[in-house]
Structure formats: C-alpha cells, structure tokens
Design goal:
Helices cover 49% and strands 15% of the residues. It has an 8-stranded mixed β-sheet, sandwiched between helices. The longest helix is centred in the middle third of the chain and has 24 residues. The protein starts with a helix and ends with a helix. This is 15-hydroxyprostaglandin dehydrogenase [NAD(+)]-like. Keywords: Oxidoreductase.
C-alpha cells in the first residue's frame, strides 16, 4: 500500500509546501500526508500555538530534522502573512506548493468580518504572494496552489450565509486565477477543492448548535458530519496530482475526489445567458 501511495503522488516528492490553518483538522492531515509522501519540507501556519508546536515536534520526530516548520501566524494580518512567506523562502530557498486551507466559522454575528478576512481575503493575499514567488516569468520554478472551498459554494441555502458567501468567493476567485495562470505561462496551477462536511472542530455538533439558538431551523441537522479527515486529505492530494489549472474538484461522503469542472462551466454558461 505504501509503495502505491508514493508512486501515485510523486508530484509531492522533494517539494516545499506551505499550508495555512495547518495545526489541526484537515490542515494537520495535509501536513502529515505531504511529509508521508516525501515532501522535502512542509511549513504550516496557524494561530494555535500549542497544537502547532505539538504537530511540528511530532513530524520532526517521525520524519527528521528540518522537514516540518510551524509558524505562528494570523493570516488575516497581511504583515504577519508576508513575514511568514519570507521566512519560508529564506529558510528553504524555494516554494513549490501552497494549500490555502485556513477557515473559521464564527458564532457571534458581530465577528462576521473575521470570517471574511480569514476565509476569503487571506486566501486572496496568500494566493497572490505564492504566485509572485513561484511565477516562472519572475524566476520561480512554477508550482501548485490549492484553495479550499466548500460544497456550500455550490448550493443555495439560508443557513451559514456569511461562511457560504466566503467559500463561494474563494471558488470564483480561484477559477479566474487558474485561467489567468494557464494563459500567462507562469507554470503555476491554481486549483479549487470543494469539501463536503468533514469531521473537524469547525463542524462539531456543539459549535453548530450555537448557531441554532438564533436560527429558525436546525443548522446542526443540516450540516451532518459525513466524511473523515483522511478522506478529505486524500482528495486534496488527488487534486494536486491530477488537477489542471482552473479546475474544481469535489471531495465528499468519504468517496474519491472527482473533477467537477465541466459541469460547473455548463452551469455558469446557463447563468451568463440570463
């Protein structure tokens, strides 16, 4: 089994990756999987100091010195994000892949801006920074950017409106940037992965039930946990391996990832005719 995985994801081998929101949940799963697939180095950003430091120690003990680096960073603060990128490039002298995974789902309506800042604005900023470093037209080596969206970006509904809106924005932005990068010859792929509900802290029942207090319906029952973190991570690796720039992938219900690009383009064509 191990030999099969190494062969399948040779695109990861000997590459330097940066993962946002990498201290726990899907992000931590991505960090573990990239190193297991022989990535040269994986840097990961998060505000969770204790969890991030613990994961770094775990990865160093398992895979060896310098393979993993935790950087405490609030990605919504652009100065901190820029400093984190500089630290990665200064330390490893290159960057081959970025997975923009960080996201929050806040309960207090007064903090909705935090969702916009982290889920969308920081994804845009991180994508631009990654492109600037990896752009072959600017001396970079090319690479891959994976932006994590959600199935909520593809479904109309009244629950979690701000969160859904941020993930819809990520989808639209990533498709556009992927098309641009393909045309410009910078050798950087920009790919979107829409995850179905996944067993992480952001969707634990206690968190969702807080939304129910001010909701006309039951959010917890409408956002059931349906897939394991490992399934989400495997799907993201599949997108890294097989995805074309500008493509959109879906990973849900513990099933293999699949390319949804053609159906999405058909839907957009229908909408554009109105």
């Amino acid at each position: 089994m191990a030999a099969k995985l190494v062969k399948r994801y040779l695109c990861v081998e000997d590459k330097v990756f940066l993962v946002t929101g990498g201290a726990a949940g899907v992000g931590a799963g991505i960090v573990r999987a990239l190193l297991a697939e022989n990535a040269r180095h994986v840097a990961f950003l998060d505000v969770a100091d204790r969890e991030g430091s613990a994961l770094e120690l775990e990865m160093l003990n398992k895979f060896g010195a310098l393979r993993a680096k935790f950087i405490k960073c609030d990605i919504a603060d652009d100065a901190q994000l820029a400093a984190a990128y500089k630290q990665v490039v200064d330390k490893y002298r290159r960057l081959d892949g970025v997975i923009n995974n960080a996201a929050v789902l806040t309960v207090d309506e007064k903090t909705y801006k935090r969702m916009v800042d982290i889920n969308f604005s920081a994804t845009v900023s991180s994508t631009m920074k990654a492109l600037d470093i990896m752009d072959a037209n600017k001396g970079g080596n090319g690479g891959t950017i994976i932006n994590i969206s959600s199935l909520l970006a593809l479904n109309l509904g009244s629950h979690l409106p701000v969160y859904a809106a941020t993930k819809t924005a990520v989808l639209q932005f990533s498709i556009a940037m992927g098309t641009e990068s393909k045309v410009s010859g910078n050798k950087v792929r920009v790919i979107t992965v829409c995850l179905g509900p996944t067993d992480t802290a952001i969707l634990n029942r206690n968190n969702l039930e807080n939304f129910d207090k001010d909701s006309s319906g039951t959010v917890a029952s409408r956002v059931p946990v349906r897939q394991k973190v490992e399934s989400a991570v495997s799907g993201i690796l599949e997108a890294i391996s097989e995805g074309k720039s500008g493509s959109t992938w879906i990973v849900k219900n513990d099933k293999p990832a699949y390319d949804y690009t053609e159906k999405l383009l058909e839907a957009f064509e229908i909408l554009s005719e109105s």
